[in-house]
Q: What sequence folds into this?
């Protein structure tokens, strides 16, 4: 097993060697893994089941876990060496980690988190801060900084983190990857060090929406179902004013993509300030008890204050005794924030809980089962390393206001990268109602390619030549994918076909070719989805029917598989493969 791990890490090192060459001119020494990992380990999945049973859903994927998740025999570090020195190795593995391994994924290591997973900066004094691979002189964002960096450098396919006040959403935005915060309580927090129990939600990072969705389906134990499209996409106009990046840079990408995919009638605009003021009446009581009466304080700021109070109060409840034993070793900023946290009366706690419940009800009422709320993820480009910007009151107010909606309501939220602005990653966030995780994952899967296409155009207005050559670029990616397929490099082929789809999402051949690669690695659900998309784009695509039939047969959906083979025969009556497959299934039902 040790040899296997060693070989795996050599391969991972080779995978990011190219990025390292670009970093040579930097004064900062960048570690081979960009400082993402704190500890290497290897948790191997069980052997795949024998055919005709479907393979494990995450077969072939590797992942890392933030150093908050328990693994049997390892001390969970919590971003602080004194925590490691005062705690015993875990006696069991977090169910979340076990579920992923049992689902076919391989866990290869633990990643760096901010000190006590408390901040959102990604800078830590105890361990070398992970380097933001998308902008080396900028912070990576935290608390799950190492996990975001591991995914951004392609060291792993996905990674786990915890989102309390932005711990997954922020580093995803700053490192240019997808980051999903699940609905609070949707995934068990057992075997995970708590930060603030009523805010903590399991989250994960990925580079592509398909992997993000596959992981989500396993963690959320979701049965197969047809993806649903949104019926309303609501832009929170006043929350975009909290952003210091040009607003049109983000909103126009979303608007153009939504219009193309669903039609203009789905788009709506909302002033959340007024909405929350009427729907969350307990905020007035909160403002009164905090003596915030001299000026009109926005509801966004009040929600931010509520989030911070929850985080600090519950953190002290969970870890106050331990902190008192190592007081000198705690970061002064954290120590100062905790010391300023007032003792809360039962009445005040009751009011905070009322605000949480009313906020969740307000978001659920606004979005219902088929709505998406669009807001900025973060207020600025990633601040420069060592700068005081992230500690400034202005930054804290803006960031906390944006992050508080999903944290307080417990709703699910996803960070979606939208290219670059001034050579730094930018992103947008989608929020769905509490419990709408599947719907949100479906929406990202549906919109991602169009969002990337539009973001490349808007970020470079002079790119008319580039937009004309999108089709040519897609064809080049497809041809490279075909070559990788011939060489049996299935994952590489999938990546190249995915690139072609990003560039041109209306070509059925790209989906059909990717489906063939998915079949080779046993990802039958993904193959079925791609074939369905290919058939939607081209009703006479015989290969798509054949491949979908094969995928469905492997999934045990025999009647639908037979229908696909028979449809292929209608299109090509002399197709031997279709004839033999249909006959085989016919005999099965005799």
A:
């Amino acid at each position: 097993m040790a040899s296997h791990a060693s070989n795996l890490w050599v391969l991972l090192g080779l995978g990011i060697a190219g990025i390292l060459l670009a970093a040579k001119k930097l004064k900062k020494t960048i570690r081979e893994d960009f400082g993402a990992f704190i500890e290497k380990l290897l948790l191997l999945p069980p052997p795949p089941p024998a055919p005709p049973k479907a393979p494990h859903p995450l077969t072939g994927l590797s992942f890392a876990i933030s150093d908050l998740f328990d693994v049997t025999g390892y001390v969970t570090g919590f971003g602080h060496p004194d925590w490691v020195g005062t705690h015993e190795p875990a006696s069991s593995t977090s169910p979340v980690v076990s579920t992923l391994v049992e689902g076919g994924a391989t866990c290869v290591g633990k990643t760096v988190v901010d000190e006590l997973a408390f901040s959102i900066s990604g800078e830590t004094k105890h361990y070398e801060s992970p380097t933001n691979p998308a902008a080396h002189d900028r912070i990576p964002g935290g608390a799950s900084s190492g996990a975001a960096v591991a995914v951004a450098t392609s060291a792993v396919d996905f990674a786990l983190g915890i989102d309390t006040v932005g711990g997954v959403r922020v580093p995803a935005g700053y490192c240019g990857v997808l980051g999903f915060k699940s609905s609070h309580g949707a995934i068990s927090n057992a075997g995970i060090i708590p930060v603030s129990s009523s805010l903590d939600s399991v989250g994960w990072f990925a580079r592509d929406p398909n992997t993000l969705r596959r992981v989500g389906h396993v963690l959320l134990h979701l049965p197969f179902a047809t993806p649903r499209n949104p019926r309303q996409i609501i832009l929170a106009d006043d929350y975009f004013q909290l952003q210091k990046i040009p607003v049109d840079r983000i909103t126009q990408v979303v608007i153009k993509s939504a219009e193309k995919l669903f039609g203009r009638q789905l788009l709506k605009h909302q002033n959340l300030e007024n909405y929350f003021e009427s729907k969350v009446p307990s905020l007035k009581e909160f403002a009164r008890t905090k003596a915030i009466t001299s000026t009109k304080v926005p509801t966004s700021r009040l929600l931010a204050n509520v989030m911070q109070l929850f985080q600090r109060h519950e953190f002290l409840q969970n870890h106050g005794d331990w902190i008192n034993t190592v007081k000198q070793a705690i970061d002064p900023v954290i120590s100062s924030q905790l010391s300023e946290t007032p003792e809360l009366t039962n009445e005040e706690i009751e009011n905070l809980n009322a605000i949480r419940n009313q906020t969740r009800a307000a978001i659920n009422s606004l979005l219902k089962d088929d709505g998406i709320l669009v807001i900025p993820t973060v207020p600025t480009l990633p601040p420069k390393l060592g700068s005081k910007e992230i500690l400034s009151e202005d930054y804290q107010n803006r960031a906390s206001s944006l992050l508080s909606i999903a944290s307080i309501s417990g709703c699910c939220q996803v960070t979606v990268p939208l290219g670059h602005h001034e050579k730094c990653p930018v992103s947008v966030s989608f929020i769905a109602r509490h419990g709408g995780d599947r719907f949100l994952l479906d929406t990202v899967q549906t919109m991602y390619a169009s969002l990337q296409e539009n973001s490349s155009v808007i970020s470079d207005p002079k790119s008319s030549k580039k937009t004309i050559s999108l089709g040519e670029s897609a064809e080049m990616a497809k041809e490279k994918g075909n070559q990788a397929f011939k060489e049996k490099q299935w994952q590489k082929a999938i990546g190249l076909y995915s690139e072609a789809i990003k560039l041109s999402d209306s070509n059925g051949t790209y989906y059909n070719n990717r489906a063939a690669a998915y079949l080779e690695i046993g990802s039958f659900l993904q193959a079925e989805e791609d074939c369905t998309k290919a058939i939607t784009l081209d009703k006479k695509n015989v290969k798509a029917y054949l491949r979908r039939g094969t995928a469905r047969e492997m999934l045990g959906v025999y009647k639908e598989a037979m229908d696909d083979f028979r449809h292929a025969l209608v299109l090509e009556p002399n197709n031997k493969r279709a004839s033999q497959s249909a006959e085989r299934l016919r005999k099965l039902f005799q």
Q: What stands out?
A: Confidence is low (pLDDT under 50) at residues 1-27, 463-468. The longest helix spans residues 299-325. The radius of gyration is 24 Å. The longest strand covers residues 412-421.
